[in-house]
């Protein structure tokens, strides 16, 4: 193993703690500095890591030690920070989505290509043993030719627990842009890129009430669809039915199921890295759990940075993230027009991940 990749984080909000814990146990990655508009928040985030410096955003971008900028800002700032990193000649790995709009994301990829730097993007949960074991089962023919899939995420909304949920209900947010990347990235990893979408959407309430924290009881406006459903027609011909909602109390539907001519899989929650993969073949009496056969075991958010420790297109890469964003925007466009929409982008299925413990 060569020298670790030096990383600087921009954005020290709630999600940063999970990344910090993962980076701390990855010998291939070294956290050098963090930056945030609120320097006190940045200092608090890295208080358990005294060797990590707290810088302004401009100082972090100019720091010659840093090779990768980890962009953990809110979606509306993703493109701006990514472009600053690219202009500084640094690789950039971004929280999902790649940008608030497809147009902004296209600009990020174009700038990176011109500068000769790489772009990665969450979710990297697809690199865990859950999705990767399911992918191996599909590739090995355990369910025969894939025919269909379902992906379901239904909750009452994040304002119940998040103290500052405003960004979930403005463009770049909503259940589809917030949670869809996990589900669609998993579907594309298992079943390949999407060619066409057909969608429908609704918005149940114009306001939401914050349920916790210092702003508890405050109402915030809702300017995005809060229930989105549709069919993704994969280039392979597989039909995936997607339901993303902030308008349901609860659900017992499996997070993801994949159905083939000879069997069906239950795939674990793509918002997590692991979980049991269940298989039932035609004529079987019930389900059996498949052994973990692929993916990073014991992974956490930020494991996608391991791909930046090696050459080539990252598995959690910009091309995949752009295709997923294109699918989501096209699904919303279809919902509003009442017509199917062809997807303008495509991507390769990311390379499979051999079974290995994260950090080895």
Automatic annotation (TrEMBL):
Keywords assigned: Oxidoreductase
UniProt domain Gfo/Idh/MocA-like oxidoreductase N-terminal: residue ranges: 5-120
Gene3D superfamilies reported in the protein's UniProt record: Dihydrodipicolinate Reductase, domain 2, NAD(P)-binding Rossmann-like Domain
Entry-linked InterPro entries: Gfo/Idh/MocA-like_OxRdtase_N, Gfo/Idh/MocA_oxidrdct_glycsds, GFO_IDH_MocA-like_dom, NAD(P)-bd_dom_sf
Domain GFO/IDH/MocA-like oxidoreductase: 132-266
Gene Ontology molecular functions: nucleotide binding; oxidoreductase activity
This protein's record includes keyword Membrane: no
Superkingdom classification of source: Bacteria
Protein name from the UniProt record: Predicted dehydrogenase
Species this protein is from: Nonomuraea solani
UniProt lineage: Bacteria, Bacillati, Actinomycetota, Actinomycetes, Streptosporangiales
């Amino acid at each position: 193993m060569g020298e670790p990749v030096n990383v600087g984080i921009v954005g020290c909000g709630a999600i940063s703690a999970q990344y910090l814990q993962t980076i701390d146990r990855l010998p291939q990655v070294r956290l050098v500095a963090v930056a945030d508009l609120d320097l006190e928040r940045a200092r608090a985030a890295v208080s358990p890591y005294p060797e990590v410096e707290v810088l302004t955003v401009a100082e972090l971008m100019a720091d010659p030690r840093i090779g990768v900028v980890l962009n953990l800002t809110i979606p509306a700032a993703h493109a701006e920070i990514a472009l600053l990193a690219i202009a500084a000649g640094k690789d950039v790995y971004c929280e999902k989505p790649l940008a608030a709009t497809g147009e902004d994301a296209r600009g990020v990829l174009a700038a990176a290509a011109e500068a000769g730097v790489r772009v990665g993007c969450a979710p990297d949960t697809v690199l865990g043993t859950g999705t990767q074991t399911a992918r191996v089962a599909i590739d090995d023919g355990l369910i025969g030719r894939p025919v269909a899939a379902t992906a379901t995420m239904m909750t009452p909304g994040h304002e119940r627990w998040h103290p500052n949920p405003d960004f979930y209900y403005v463009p770049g947010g909503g259940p589809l842009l917030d949670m869809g990347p996990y589900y669609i990235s998993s579907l594309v990893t298992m079943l390949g890129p999407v060619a066409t979408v057909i969608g429908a959407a609704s918005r149940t309430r114009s306001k939401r009430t914050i349920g916790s924290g210092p702003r508890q009881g405050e109402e915030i406006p809702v300017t995005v669809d809060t229930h989105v459903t549709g069919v993704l027609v994969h280039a392979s011909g597989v039909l995936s039915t997607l339901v993303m909602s902030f308008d349901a109390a609860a659900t017992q539907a499996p997070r993801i199921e994949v159905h083939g001519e000879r069997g069906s899989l239950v795939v674990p929650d793509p918002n997590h890295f692991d979980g049991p993969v269940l298989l039932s073949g035609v004529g079987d009496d019930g389900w059996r759990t498949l052994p973990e056969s692929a993916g990073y075991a014991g992974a956490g958010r930020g494991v996608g940075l391991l791909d930046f420790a090696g050459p080539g297109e990252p598995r959690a890469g910009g091309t995949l993230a752009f295709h997923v964003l294109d699918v989501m925007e096209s699904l919303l466009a279809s919902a509003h027009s009442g017509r199917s929409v062809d997807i303008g982008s495509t991507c390769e299925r990311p390379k499979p991940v051999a079974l290995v413990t994260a950090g080895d």
